[in-house]
Structure formats: structure tokens, C-alpha cells
Amino acid sequence: MTLPLRSRSSGQPLARDAMAYVLAGGRGSRLHELTDNRAKPAVYFGGKARIIDFALSNAINSGIRRIGVATQYKAHSLIRHMQRAWNFMRPERNESFDILPASQRVSETQWYEGTADAVYQNIDIIAAHAPKYMVILAGDHIYKMDYELMLRQHVDSGADVTVGCLVVPRMDAVAFGVMHVDETDRITDFVEKPADPPGIPGQPDMALASMGIYVFDTQLLFDQLRRDAADPESKRDFGGDIIPWLVRNGKAQAHRFTDSCIRAADELEEYWRDVGTVDAYFDANLDLTDTVPQLDLYDRDWPIWSDAVVAAPAKFVHDEEGRRGSAICSLVSNDCIVSGATAQRSLLMTGVKMGSFSSVREGVILPYSNIGRGAQLSRVIIDSGVRIPEGLVVGEDPELDARRFRRSANGVCLITKPMIERLTT
Fold first, then answer.
1. At 275, which helix (H) or strand (E)?
2. Which key words tag this protein in UniProt (predicted)?
3. For an engineered disulfide with 367, which of 32, 67, 233, 350 has Cβ 3.0 to 4.6 Å away?
4. Rounded distance, CA 24 to CA 69, Å?
């Protein structure tokens, strides 16, 4: 049995009157070749999910039944996933799921020019659903959160906008938008990636960093988007334009993640990760292999919904000395075959095949990859559909690895199809 951090709000759920709008158009360039053919929210995570499934699952679990997803960069993989995994919404129950690619709805020459513009261009679609509140979400973070609690604070505080915030060590906040707040958590200043972030009252060594989650009354949001669209100096961005304007001219309230994060009984701390770099993506996946992981994907009270792949169970074969199919401290998904091979502290996603005498230690292996006989791989991310040649060794010679593959600052090797093709031609 798992329990949320605190009990759900009493009374009529505000989520019934809300629409979640997920911004999923980002390229995710710091993931390098992992996003050559897919947007960052479409990158596989945790065995069978995609990154975007966390924001979408939070919305569904919070009681929100109207959802829009704005896509732009290399969106085919993302759109296909959402069509397969998220097609259970029913209009007759006042539910909706709209996929909103950039489609030059405002101008024949204008794609989405920023996060705010990605909402502005679809005002007519949002208005047709008539939500009272809008929950604006980033589609590229890993976390569990009850948006109903954030909605409740927004209404109770009378704010024009409520901004989801993380409490982080002050100097770790240099890569975020940072809130300067008063004793009531009203935002008095918003600074984008400051060199010297402001501290929190009473906690001078900590700062409030924006999570890219915003709650608005819908009509006020529409008014702000129209005002911003008419401003020739605007970059059409929530963090850069909309939120700072409301901080100066309205009431902006901070909502702390600790007040609405969802934790299972064994999760000791709130968990939020931006998996926007190769090392961060690798570490967050390997977090799941811990005996008591910081993020519990087995939480049946707050499930992470995804595509229900129809596939055979995982299979482990051979039981000879040196040729024994085994997995230690690993997650192994459906349709995997570990044939006389060993996986240690690794994630094998759907359809991975491992040949005899091969091994993976600390590996994140994306779907339908094939690891040849005798290959020895350590600290690797293998992109989907890659065929690792027999006998390939990765993780023992840093200089050789860096010449052949993408090697990160922390010594993680990202391996893709074109890299393997260059080795074999």
C-alpha cells in the first residue's frame, strides 16, 4: 500500500474544471544523438515509458481529463506514441486529448515561436473545451505530483499565476529560472539563470527554482497571451516574458513541490529530475535499479501510464558455468531474451536480445537492440534498434571509446546505429 505525501484536497476537485497543456516541442539538443530522430519528451525511460508519460500520468492521476499536447521538433515518434498509449479518453465523458503540432494556425509563415506562443496559437481549441483553469506543463521531466493540490493553492491565494518551484541549494539554481519570494511565498522577482541566485527567506542557502509548471485562470491566461503576442519585443516565452510581467504587474505565487509531490511509502524524499543531458538521463534510469529506488515505478496508487505493448514475457536461458542467463539489480522488460548472458545494474527495455557470453554492466539498453555474442559493455546507453557486433568491448579504453562513440564527461558511452555502421564499414 502506498500513500501520497499528504491527503488529497477535500471538497469538489478543481481538476474537473482544469485543462492540462503539455509543452512537448523541445529538441533536447544536450541529449545529442538520442534526439536526432525524436523529440526529448519521446525518449524512452525506465523500461517501457517515454519521458512525456510522467507529466501526462500526473495529470490523469490528479483528476484532469482534458489534455492538450503541443509538439514541434521531429514529432512523429512522439505523436505515434501518444496515439497508441493515450487514446482512451472519451468525449462522451467530457474527456479530451488533443495533439497540437505546430501548423501555422496564426500565420502561414509562423511556427511556434516560444512556449507562450505554443499556447496562444491554440486559444480557439482550448476555448472550445471551456476549462476554468489551465495547468501548463513541461513534457520533459521525471517526477510524480498531484496538480489538484497546486490548483487548490492557486484558488485559495487569489493569484494571477502560480508557479511550481523546487527548493534547491542556492548555487545549484544558476541553471534555472529563480523565484525571489517574501515570507508568504508571493513572488517579488523572477530571475532567469542568475549568477548569484536569491535565497529563500529563513533559508538563505537555498533557492526556489522554477519547474516550468504554471497554473492560471483560463481567461486571464488568454488576456496575457494576447497582450504578449502584440508586444514586438517579446520572445513569446512563459519564463522570459509572461511570468516576469505578472510578477511586476499582478500577483504571482510560488507553489513548493514538497507540498504536492507524491511519494510511495518507501520513497524518503521527493523526486524530480531534468534528464536533459546524457549523464542525467543515464543516472536517472540507473536510479531505478536500486533495491529501494528513489522513484517507485511500482506504486499502484499513482501509476505511470504508457503504451501497453503486447509481447511475450522476458526469457532467461542456459545454465552453464560462464554461460548463464541472469540479471542482477536490473529491470528487464517484455520480449527480452537473455541467452547465456549477464545484465548487472542495467535496464533492458522491450525486445532486447543478449547473445551468449555477452555482458552489460550499468547499461541503459533501448528497445529492440541486439547485443552480439561475447560483447562486453560497461556504462553505456544503446539507442533503439542497434545491433552490437560480436565481441565488441566498451568501457575499458576511454580514448578508444571516445573515438568511436559519444563519451560523456562522466564516462558514459552513447551508441547509435550510425556509429556502429562506421565501425563495420
1. none
2. ATP-binding, Carbohydrate metabolism, Glycogen biosynthesis, Glycogen metabolism, Nucleotide-binding, Nucleotidyltransferase, Transferase
3. 350
4. 6
User: How many of the other CB atoms lie within 10 Å of CB of 171?
Assistant: 11
Instruction: Calculate Rg over the CA atoms of the chain.
Output: 23
Cite the residue boundaries of each domain of the chain with CATH code 2.160.10.10. 315-424
Please count the residues of the chain.
Answer: 425
- The residue written with cell numbers 507529466 in the block is 55
Which residue numbers belong to the known binding site? 112, 177, 192-193, 210
Q: What would the pLDDT profile of 97-116 be if each residue is shown by its tens digit?
A: 999 987 655 554 467 888 99
Rounded Cα–Cα distance for residues 348 and 193 (Å): 36
Strand partners, 101: 71
- What is the location of CATH 3.90.550.10 in the chain? 14-276
At 358-412, the pLDDT tens digits run 999 999 999 999 999 999 999 999 999 999 999 999 999 999 999 999 999 999 9
Domain at 14-276: CATH code: 3.90.550.10
Q: Residues annotated in the binding site for alpha-D-glucose 1-phosphate, as ranges?
A: 112, 177, 192-193, 210
pTM of the model: 0.93
Contact present, 26 and 40 (Cβ < 8 Å): yes
Write down the residue that cell numbers 483553469 correspond to: 133
